[in-house]
């Protein structure tokens, strides 16, 4: 379904550039998904990264997921106790 709009050159240029941007972002998204899929397939066959094999980078001590995992549950309790003690200090 199409809609007909009468606009000046500025609006036409805006809509055209917006359309081009959306097309490119869609293509980038598809390519990123393909690359992630290929990486997942090849990762199980790979022993170590190329940078580590060439000694350009030291192997990491912790897995990547450990760095980005949520904080442990005791973190909330420690934060709460710290806030309560700081509030009690000012009373």
How would you describe this protein?
The protein has 91 residues and is an all-alpha fold. It has one domain. The longest helix is centred in the N-terminal third of the chain and has 35 residues. The protein is elongated, with a radius of gyration of 26 Å. The termini are far apart.
Map the helices and strands:
Blueprint: H1 9-43, H2 50-53, H3 64-68, H4 74-90
Quaternary state of the chains? single chain
Number of domains: 1
User: Regions with pLDDT < 50 over 5+ consecutive residues?
Assistant: none
Radius of gyration: 26 Å
User: Strand count, sense and closure of the main sheet?
Assistant: none
Q: Strand tally, please?
A: 0
Q: What percent of the residues sit in helical stretches (DSSP H or I)?
A: 55-70%
* Overall spatial form: elongated
| Mean pLDDT over the full residue set | 75
Straight-line distance between termini: 66 Å
Per DSSP, the total helix count is 4
Tell me the structural class. mainly alpha
Question: How much β-strand is present in the residues?
Answer: under 5%
What is the H/E string?
HHHH
Structural key phrases:
single chain; 91 residues; mainly alpha
Give a short summary of the structure:
The chain has 91 residues and is an all-alpha fold. It is built from four helices and no strands.
